[in-house]
């Protein structure tokens, strides 16, 4: 029987299945709730940055640094970001190496906290309040500002100085929520909406390479990029994350609330945005400098215009000005493109943003329309900045040059942008007073007031305006020679004191005297302890006059002390008679300044005192002979030994022949082959054999047709111009290159054989450098001198050998001079070096007399005493001069003799105008020591037998190198150059008189107490801040 279904009872569900279902639904609900909670938390964090604010402000609580004495081992320097390079922060370790090698030590340096070090070690940029402006500041020794520059030059000093329309426009374009007042803890380093879109665009770019990838940067991360990322770019995703992390830490440096930090970010961005570069400006940073460089606008005017309320009277002006500012804000995306060849595209983009800003309510329609209608053009590149008088900037130039050398950089532009304060030893007040005195001395009234008209000075007719003066003064203090004054009257960047090679006349006698005294000291050390019997056995070389005198002196004196021997050495007598001297590879004739000295027999002491030339020429000859024997051994060995003769002759041939090859290379290299040939033929007599020989030697492979055309062209207008074709063919064959050797061809053509060879080689190898030509010419060069090796030229060989050994002697003299500060690599190989022909520099000469002033001890020369890098940053480093031990360079005995002679020059000799001392305005008088020198540099032409046939005065100089009292020493020069040199006959007496007249200018320095003059710490001079009115 069937049962009705409606009465069936369903089974009850029980067991584990129902529990599992409940759990699943519970977990799902919990997950949804958790996601919702997390989403809410994330959204809340995105909106408020509360957690970031708490964590990062706690993180930065221990971020900081202190500055303590000595070098730091808790410091991290940045990598090569543009900002860190420009301000020099990344280069401080390299600067430190240069400065330590030059006698500086680290006086004090920053100690970064452990938290700051940890951030740096994790790759973040160090968080600190960065400078928007920095640059080089120089102080003089008294603490007075000497020079100051800042980059950029025009900046906003704070948020309130930024016109509202600029701030709002920047925020609308780049970072709209940066200053949202409803988010007091906002992290300005990241805009989550823009960042998310940027990530999505990057992901799409992987699939579609044409997908645009706009950045998600905020103003804060862009600043990190501009300043600290390599090349100012975001090259990789990790670099972007580093920018975000660094900007985040920096934002919370002063606590969880970031509104002040965010306002500072806006200002910092405007001050640091890179805007390409322009000639005579360099790199352009910041809106202020950008407006000046690209549009020629005054920054204050721009800010005044844009801060004013818009009205019908000023809307056009505001529109044009706003358009200029806006174009620069937009241009930062690709400044080198947009501000140069992409300028039209920049203007179109500016139009688009003007409309967007108006639609967004940032600017009014009236301002929009005025800006759209405005026509703005880039200004012409600025001209080079006008430089004030170079004379007034000599101190600055000297100090900056010293810094370049000390830091190992070569670019003043780079130097001036360093965040650096440096203290110079110069006294700018005295420097300017001296410069004024020198300038006055170039006028008739000033020269008259200084007493420069008179005997051995200016004649009544002389115009002093064509004279140039230079002056250097050092002070010995605290074991160092401090440069106090260094200037000249040349209104050019050239530095007379250090920049040239000048004939300073008889001041070279001081170097020669010291070299002589050093040789006598060596002879004393060698022979001073020998008995008379031992001395008698020593046989000096026939040309060694100095050893012969030393042996004779020691054999006949009871006092064998070094001092007694040196005193006797300067009382040796020499003839002052003019004569012909074989030196420098030829015969030379020298004369005395005073003809009355001719024929006299004078001691070295008297000749030094009265500056008699011929005595010192003969002394130099003795010095050279002595050094020849020291360098090459007895003369019998290099004149009598065949192997040594051959060696020296080969040296001579190699050296002299290279001079000829270089001369011909200089004349013919770089010219078209036939032009070079025509140049040579200009100096060849127009005869068929000579012309033919040149043509066949220089161009042996050219055809008969070419040869014939050249012959007819170069013989045109001569009787030989009608040569027939057969005659030319005969010449072509007769003077072929293989028919005569090189010397014979040179003889036939009356052309130096090496000229023929050089032009032939250059014709075949037109791009050959000189070194290659010298190497390839070796065989030809030695063949050209083959005549010299023949026995009948024995006397000629001797002269060449003597010349080569003499050059070795001058090499030894150069070493001795350079050890005492001579500034050039070689002395002029002539006895005339003793009377100034080798040249010198005033500054080097001052250092030489400073060596004597300091008792023969070489003290370090200081021009910079302190350098402060990166003040107020975690990279702060101060370098100061280390206390250096003086180096003994001259014995006390040599110094005693030199001081005596220098004093006698002033008391009785050529500097007697200062015999009464250097009198200051207060009546105090300083003793003066010194040496004068009159330089009369001439271009002389001699005939056979050393007969003078032409003489032209090239330079005239008067110099006085001096010591004033116990602390001061220096040099003063007066110079006249061609074509004016021939108009003057002044001597070094004028330099002595000019120094005498400068007592009032130097008095403030000389009278200053020794304890004064050290700069105390204090604020650096600042460029005036630029603010809108």
TrEMBL record:
Q: Where is this region: Disordered?
A: 1010-1029
The organism's superkingdom is given as Bacteria
Record's InterPro entries?
Beta-lactam/transpept-like, Glyco_trans_51, Glycosyltr_51/Transpeptidase, Lysozyme-like_dom_sf, PBP_transglycosylase
Pfam families (alphabetical): Transgly (PF00912)
- What's a GO biological-process term for it? peptidoglycan biosynthetic process
Q: What are the transmembrane regions? A: 21-43
Catalysed conversion reaction: [GlcNAc-(1->4)-Mur2Ac(oyl-L-Ala-gamma-D-Glu-L-Lys-D-Ala-D-Ala)](n)-di-trans,octa-cis-undecaprenyl diphosphate + beta-D-GlcNAc-(1->4)-Mur2Ac(oyl-L-Ala-gamma-D-Glu-L-Lys-D-Ala-D-Ala)-di-trans,octa-cis-undecaprenyl diphosphate = [GlcNAc-(1->4)-Mur2Ac(oyl-L-Ala-gamma-D-Glu-L-Lys-D-Ala-D-Ala)](n+1)-di-trans,octa-cis-undecaprenyl diphosphate + di-trans,octa-cis-undecaprenyl diphosphate + H(+)
Q: Which GO terms describe its molecular function?
A: carboxypeptidase activity; peptidoglycan glycosyltransferase activity
This protein's pathway reads: Cell wall biogenesis; peptidoglycan biosynthesis
Spell out the Gene3D superfamilies in the cross-references: Biosynthetic peptidoglycan transglycosylase-like, DD-peptidase/beta-lactamase superfamily
Give the GO cellular component terms, alphabetically.
outer membrane-bounded periplasmic space
What residue stretches are annotated with the Glycosyl transferase family domain?
A: 153-304
The entry's keywords: Carboxypeptidase, Glycosyltransferase, Hydrolase, Membrane, Multifunctional enzyme, Protease, Transferase, Transmembrane, Transmembrane helix
This one is known as peptidoglycan glycosyltransferase
């Amino acid at each position: 029987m069937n049962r009705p279904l409606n009465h069936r009872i369903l089974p009850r569900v029980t067991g584990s299945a129902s529990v599992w279902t409940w759990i699943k639904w519970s977990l799902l609900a919990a997950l949804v709730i958790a996601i919702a909670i997390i989403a809410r938390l994330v959204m809340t964090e995105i909106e408020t940055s509360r957690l970031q604010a708490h964590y990062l402000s706690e993180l930065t609580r221990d971020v900081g640094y202190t500055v303590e004495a000595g070098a730091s081992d808790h410091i991290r320097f940045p990598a090569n970001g543009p900002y860190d390079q420009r301000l020099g922060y990344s280069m401080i370790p390299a600067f430190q190496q240069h400065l330590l090698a030059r006698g500086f030590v680290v006086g004090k340096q920053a100690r970064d906290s452990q938290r700051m070090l940890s951030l740096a070690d994790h790759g973040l940029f160090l968080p600190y309040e960065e400078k928007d402006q920095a640059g080089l500041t120089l102080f003089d020794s008294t603490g007075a500002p000497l020079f100051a520059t800042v980059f950029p030059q025009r900046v906003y000093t704070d948020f309130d100085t930024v016109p509202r329309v600029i701030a709002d426009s920047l925020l609308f374009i780049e970072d709209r929520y940066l200053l949202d007042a409803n988010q007091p803890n906002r992290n300005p380093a990241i805009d989550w909406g823009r960042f998310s879109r940027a990530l999505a665009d990057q992901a799409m770019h992987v699939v579609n390479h044409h997908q645009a990838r706009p950045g998600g940067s905020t103003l804060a991360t862009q600043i990190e990029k501009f300043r600290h990322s390599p090349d100012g770019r975001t090259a990789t995703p990790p670099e972007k994350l580093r920018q975000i992390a660094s900007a985040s830490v920096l934002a919370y440096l002063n606590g969880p609330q970031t509104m002040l930090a965010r306002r500072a970010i806006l200002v910092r961005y405007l001050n640091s945005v890179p805007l390409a570069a322009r000639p005579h400006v360099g790199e352009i940073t910041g809106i202020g400098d950008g407006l000046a460089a690209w549009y020629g606008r005054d920054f204050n005017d721009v800010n005044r215009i844009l801060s004013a309320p818009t009205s019908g009277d000023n809307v056009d002006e505001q529109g044009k000005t706003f358009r200029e500012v806006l174009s620069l804000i937009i241009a930062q995306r690709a400044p080198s493109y947009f501000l140069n060849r992409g300028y039209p595209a920049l203007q179109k983009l500016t139009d688009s943003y003007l409309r967007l800003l108006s639609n967004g309510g940032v600017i009014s329609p009236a301002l929009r329309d005025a800006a759209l209608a405005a026509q703005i053009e880039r200004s012409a590149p600025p001209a080079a900045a006008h430089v004030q008088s170079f004379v007034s900037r000599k101190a600055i130039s000297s100090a900056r040059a010293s810094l370049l050398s000390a830091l190992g950089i070569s670019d003043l532009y780079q130097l001036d942008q360093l965040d650096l304060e440096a203290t110079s030893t110069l006294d700018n007040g005295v420097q300017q007073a001296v410069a004024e005195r020198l300038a006055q001395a170039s006028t008739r009234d000033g020269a008259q007031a200084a007493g420069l008209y008179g005997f051995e000075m200016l004649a009544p007719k002389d115009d002093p305006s064509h004279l140039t003066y230079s002056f250097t003064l050092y002070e010995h203090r605290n074991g160092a020679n401090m440069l106090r004054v260094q200037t000249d009257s040349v209104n050019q960047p050239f530095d007379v004191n250090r920049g040239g090679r000048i004939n300073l006349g008889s001041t070279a006698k001081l170097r020669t005297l010291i070299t002589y005294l050093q040789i006598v000291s060596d002879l004393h050390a060698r022979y001073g302890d020998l008995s008379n019997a031992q001395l008698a056995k020593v046989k000096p070389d026939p040309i060694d006059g100095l050893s012969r005198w030393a042996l004779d002196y020691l054999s006949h004196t009871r006092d064998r002390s070094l001092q007694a021997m040196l005193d006797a050495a300067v009382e040796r007598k020499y003839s002052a008679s003019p004569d012909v001297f074989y030196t420098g590879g030829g015969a030379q004739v020298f004369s005395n300044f005073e003809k009355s000295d001719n024929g006299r027999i004078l001691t070295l002491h008297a000749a030094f005192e009265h500056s008699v030339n011929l005595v010192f020429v003969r002394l130099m000859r003795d010095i050279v002979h002595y050094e020849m024997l020291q360098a090459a051994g007895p003369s019998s060995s290099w004149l009598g030994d065949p192997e040594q003769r051959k060696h020296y002759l080969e040296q001579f041939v190699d050296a002299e022949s290279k001079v000829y090859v270089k001369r011909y290379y200089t004349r013919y290299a770089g010219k078209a082959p036939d032009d070079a040939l025509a140049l040579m033929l200009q100096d060849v007599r127009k005869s068929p054999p000579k012309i033919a020989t040149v043509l066949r030697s220089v161009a042996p492979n050219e055809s008969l047709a070419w040869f014939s055309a050249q012959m007819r062209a170069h013989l045109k207008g001569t009787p030989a111009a009608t040569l027939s074709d057969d005659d030319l063919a005969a010449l072509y064959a007769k003077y072929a290159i293989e028919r005569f050797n090189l010397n014979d061809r040179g003889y036939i053509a009356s052309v130096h054989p090496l000229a023929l060879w050089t032009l032939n080689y250059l014709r075949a190898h037109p791009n050959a450098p000189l070194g290659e030509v010298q190497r390839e010419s070796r065989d030809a060069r030695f063949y050209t001198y083959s005549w010299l090796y023949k026995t009948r030229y024995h006397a000629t060989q001797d002269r060449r050998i003597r010349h080569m050994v003499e050059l070795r002697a001058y090499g030894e003299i150069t070493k001795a001079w350079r050890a005492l500060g001579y500034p050039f690599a070689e002395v002029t190989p002539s006895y005339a070096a003793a009377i100034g022909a080798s040249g010198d520099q005033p500054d080097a000469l001052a250092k030489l007399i400073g060596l004597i002033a300091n008792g023969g001890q070489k003290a370090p020369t200081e021009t910079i005493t302190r350098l402060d890098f990166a003040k107020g940053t975690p990279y702060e480093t101060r370098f100061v001069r280390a206390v250096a031990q003086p180096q003994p360079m001259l014995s006390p005995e040599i110094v005693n003799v030199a001081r005596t002679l220098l004093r006698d020059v002033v008391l009785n000799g050529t500097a007697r105008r200062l015999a009464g001392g250097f009198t200051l305005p207060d009546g105090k008088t300083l003793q003066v020591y010194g040496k004068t020198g009159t330089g009369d540099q001439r271009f002389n032409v001699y005939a056979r037998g050393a007969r003078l046939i032409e003489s032209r005065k090239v330079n005239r100089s008067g110099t006085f190198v001096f010591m004033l009292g116990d602390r001061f020493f220096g040099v003063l020069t007066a110079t006249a150059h061609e074509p004016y040199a021939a108009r003057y006959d002044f001597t070094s007496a004028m330099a002595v008189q000019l120094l005498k007249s400068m007592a009032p200018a130097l008095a403030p320095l000389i009278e200053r107490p020794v304890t004064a003059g050290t700069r105390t710490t204090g604020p650096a001079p600042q460029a005036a801040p630029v603010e809108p009115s």
